[in-house]
Amino acid sequence: MMTRRRMTMAGCCALALALGATACGGGPVSAGGGSKEFGGQTLSVAGVWSGAEQKNFQKVLDAFTEKTGAKTQYVSTGDNVSTVVGSKIEGGNAPDVVMVPQVGVLQQFAKKNWLTPLSATTQKAVGANYAPVWKEYGSVGGKLYGLYFKAAHKSTVWYSPEAFEQAGVKPPKTYEEMLRTAQAVSDSGLPAFAVAGEDGWTLTDWFENVYLSQAGPEKYDRLAKHEIPWTDATVVKALTTLGKLFADKKLIAGGQKGALSTDFPGSVEKVFGPEPEAGMVYEGDFVAGVAKDQFGRKIGEEARFFPFPAVTGGKAPVVSGGDAAVVLKDGRNQKAATAFLEFLATPEAAAVWARAGGFLSPNKKLDLASYGDDTLRETAKSLITAGDSVRFDMSDQAPAAFGGTKGMGEWKILQDFLRDPSDPAATAARLEAAAAKAYKG
């Protein structure tokens, strides 16, 4: 399915250095492409990925095995990474590496003294190949613990070109235009949006894009740190803006009730499945992977995106998420774990998954030609060129009890808001109460 790309001489040197191999003037790399110094060892890696994402990450693990000889064992944690990893540590069965999907969880792990700081080699690669914002999100107390291997561009709205053609509309430039476009799509006989309300995290992403554009990055940063309360007027304003969309049953496939029973893959299916039920779905670049892998859509032709539009005079937002690799102190194979993160910091490791699809890398040294299609290249370029104007998913920066747990905190409160968006101020008060408790804890 995937062919290995011949490395450049510079890339070979970087990879050999990262893995402790000798090459490029210091002696040839072995026929297998690495030193095999970890032969006979098994590296345990935990992460949230399952399905197609797990399959593609396995290709990265296999590339590490080819370089070092280390066998790998992947364990999917599901959404509750903190709980699963904590129980494994307590049970004396800690993984060596965890792919952490939330800044708040990374901070929690560091404060519990579960993590080992990144090696000097990895830190040097982060300094050279990543925008400073990624180092900031991977650091706690001035120490760098997390290497962001996989990123998500969460400011993309995906649409069916056929639905837009039928409605006689083009991709909008502003949020207000998007609502008018949605009305035109709805008037043409197809609900405008599939909303994945069953998954609370998608609703936090909706809020964050509106809030970042409307309130600006300074307020966004302060709210993410809970330096201003969720009852702030900017929050109520953003909820009011979002509520206008959520309240219009004609614009949402199945209305609020239908949205609340639709999970993320289901929302993509409603737009790009065999029997379309909506014209658009908002979520990150990973929508393309589902549309392509599960429903056979040609990305760029049958499935396209436009940037999440600017809201009421603000700038177009660039919200990102990501999975950071961390090394656990209680893991049994510290040296292999360290070498694995040094490998993940190279553009060669990122290229393995980039060619497979459904992946973006924050590593600016990754050749954009590594991505399999023009749409992925476009989203990757947008993420890289945004630099430090990127803002990390706000809910992922919060304590897990507020921003990252099913049936609790922000996820649950925004689901209730989708069900009844008539009182934004009351929703803001509930959010503040939950946030105050979680941040205090």
From TrEMBL:
Protein family according to the UniProt entry = Belongs to the bacterial solute-binding protein 1 family.
Q: Which keywords accompany this UniProt record?
A: Signal, Transport
- PROSITE patterns according to UniProt: PROKAR_LIPOPROTEIN
Signal peptide per UniProt: 1-23
Q: Which organism is it from?
A: Streptomyces ficellus
Would the keyword Hydrolase turn up in this protein's UniProt record?
A: no
Top-rank lineage group of the source organism: Bacteria
Q: Does the keyword Transport apply?
A: yes
Name-wise, this protein is ABC transporter substrate-binding protein
